[in-house]
Amino acid sequence: MRRREDMTFPPGEYERRLRELRERMAGRELDAVIITDPENLMYLTDHQTTGYSFFQALIVPLEAEPMMITRAMEQSNVLERTWVESSRAYPDTGDAILDLVSSLRDLRLGDARVGYERNSYYFPAYQQDRFHDAFGEGLVDCFGIVEEGRILKSAAEISVMRRAAHAAEAGMRAGQEAAVVGATENDVAAAISSAMFRAGGEFPAVMPYVASGPRTMIGHSTWEGRTIEPGEHVFLELGGCYRRYHAAVMRTVVNGELSPSMHSAQELMKHALAELRGLMRPGVTVAEVDRLVRSVIESNDVGARLVTRAGYSIGIAFPPSWDEGYILSLMDGDDRPLEPGMTFHVIPWMWGVDGDKTVGISDTLHVTEEGCESLFTLGEDFTVHDGRMPGPVTDLNARAS
Length: 401
Fold this sequence. Notes:
The chain is an alpha/beta fold. It folds into 2 domains: 11-150, Creatinase/prolidase N-terminal domain (Creatine Amidinohydrolase, Chain A, domain 1, 3-Layer(aba) Sandwich), CATH 3.40.350.10; 155-385, Creatine Amidinohydrolase (Alpha-Beta Complex), CATH 3.90.230.10. The protein has helices spanning 11-27, 38-45, 75-81, 96-106, 125-135, 147-150, 155-178, 185-198, 260-279, 286-297, 396-400; strands spanning 32-35, 57-61, 67-71, 86-90, 114-116, 139-141, 209-212, 233-242, 245-255, 311-313, 343-346, 350-353, 357-359, 363-367, 372-374, 383-385. It is elongated. Residues 17-151 form the Creatinase N-terminal domain.
């Protein structure tokens, strides 16, 4: 396997991933698989591009060398940034699906048992229908066959996620400092983004969530130019990114006095995180983690609720989402045990404090052999500013004249 200068990991990491994928293929009696999910392509080959809305696929035979099918514009990414030696590019006027079928036949897989990712965002139904019509029998849904490897991060992947966490932490500190009375949500978002990118971060799968005052009660709302008023709080959530690996974190800023209900919410979320760090270790089930978070948050006396899952797997991501929740989410009813190498964004956040405030403190945790560890060093208490409206700016030049 060749090593490109710009690849994220050494060849041995990709050789292991490919070998383990083929072991799962053999277990499912598949002669080849067609991988179209951008995250899975990145995981297997280091291939990344913002042009993934055009069809792209990696054919992985059980024994022969893999082949990439991609738009001609994107072929340079395959040649310059991945270990893949064989690729077939189609022009914008071409037919990607017919090229895929032709490539399978060239690889003598025309009568083979071939798996494809039926649930991939970027292999839409109309293309799948055309693929079935052109290829014929032998197609099998193999959704999840790559994700089975992605769920457990290697030491090399954890190292990259730490770099993502470093960028996220820099962005969050900047956001906490910027979220003051008189600033706009745009000001805060700009401060976060600048700090993340200056700290080595790359464009995340989702840009930061910045919501102030009553807008915090709107799910997934982010900056819209609103000015932060005295007495208002600001909800911040962001994911730092490095080489498409993410680490996410929530924090809350208060402008003015920390009310008893907001203090109670802060302490309850901190308690939930402390309990999680004590509980999460190999062998504990996903359902147990969810029940712990839910029981702690639902014990609040400030009118808040946990309206979502308790957390989700996190790692490689492209827009539109930074999470791997479709692989594994922390929800009740799932008795899957935690394993070393799993990474989760745990979110014991609170919706509806006093009926009109959403607040959050979260963490990205890595399950180790002995327990779990945080990827962050950031303090958890709400950031409290004095909440006063800034005074008029003095024109020193005018005074001097």
